[in-house]
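New to this. Help decode both lines:
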Amino acid sequence: MYGLITDLYQLTMAAGYFLAGKANEVATFELFLRRLPPERNYVIAAGLEQAVDYLLNLHFEPAQIDYLKHLSQFQRAPAEFFDYLARLRFTGDLDAVPEGTPVFPDEPILRVRAPLIEAQIVETYLLATIGFQSMVATKASRVVYAAAGRSVIEFGTRRAHSPQAGVLAGRAAYIGGCIGTSNVQAGFLYGVPVFGTAAHSWVLSFESEIESFRKLQELLGPSTVYLVDTYDTLQGTRRAASLGRPMWGVRLDSGNYVELSRMVRRILNEAGLHDARIMVSGDMNEYKILELVREEAPIDAFGVGTELATSADAPNLAVIYKLVELESDGRKRYTAKFSTEKETWPGAKQVFRYTGYDLLACVDEEPQRSPEGEEPEVLLQPVIRKGELVRRLPDVHQIREHALRALERLPRAYRSLFGVEPAYRVEPTPRLRSLRDQVRRQYLEGTP
């Protein structure tokens, strides 16, 4: 399982490491953000549960190994390499920030320490699952912030980049603050609350709109949400209101939401349905929601689909996975890149979070009180040791609560829907700066 869910070059490097006698070298890689996406001031880390599942179950099936043997790139690989793959399991260590934690560029989200081949081939999967879910969780947190206390439901599976992506988007959106998802599989697998109304096809399948509403109410009772804009939004609302309780409310999927929501609210109130709620959907994003809130439109909930499940305005995350240390024959060698705009910090690292700023430290540095006497939060925690899970992972509800609390602790300016200057401060410790200078001299100047 999972063995071939990787880029080919991970496996050609693995074969090369094996041939070069480097299989027993122990590598430390860190996964982190190179930069923030446009208009983002933070990223919500998500996807750790899937990363752990991958590492604990990583192996190659015989048919997969046979497939690799027939690829031209492996014609010179020794037979012992394929025997090695047949036995391969993840035997290393994983440290990670808790899911739902806001993170910033250069801060490790995950740290993997394992034999070089094991640590190398996991790169692709870890980048994919952490990058995608963190991207969606971050987008969700922005939408929820714009909604200013109104409920947000993730509706995006049908426009997600695959059905599988839709499931994980539902999970990530819940972590980011949505109250639930329309994706039933996300509910089944992860316990995310699921919500659904009825499509226009439901209304169109009946001879009359009122008949479709009546049958929906018979089925759903107090969970009934009438989609009222199939023909005429106001007339549809009057028909829904005429049926009285039980009902949850109505959904608008088109039109001028400010004007329509006010008129719909009036119709519902006049019918004595003051507790009936109004949901709007249809190409929603954080900026459209922000405007509706500013206009004081009487909207109680938002259904957000395409823009959320694809993070349409920032559809990828610049997560990278870099080698920072290599141990061989009892000797540790620190590694870093110094190429333009892609420079990295050497050595395994830890993040200490204080109120309003973070320290990026060498992994064996002790946390220090701030000048104000504050004890920092130590972000990276042990998750896997020697291939075995050592920390019980929280469920998705606990992760969501952690994310909400962590965002509340951020300085308010960084919750903005627009880019803020100066960026959140991540300060390397003097010792880390010294290590970088030492490694730079070693590689660029050839001096120890």
Q: What stands out?
A: Residues 170 and 183 are 6 Å apart (CA to CA). The longest helix spans residues 123-147. DSSP finds 16 helices and 19 strands in the chain. The chain has two domains: 8-127+317-445, 135-309.
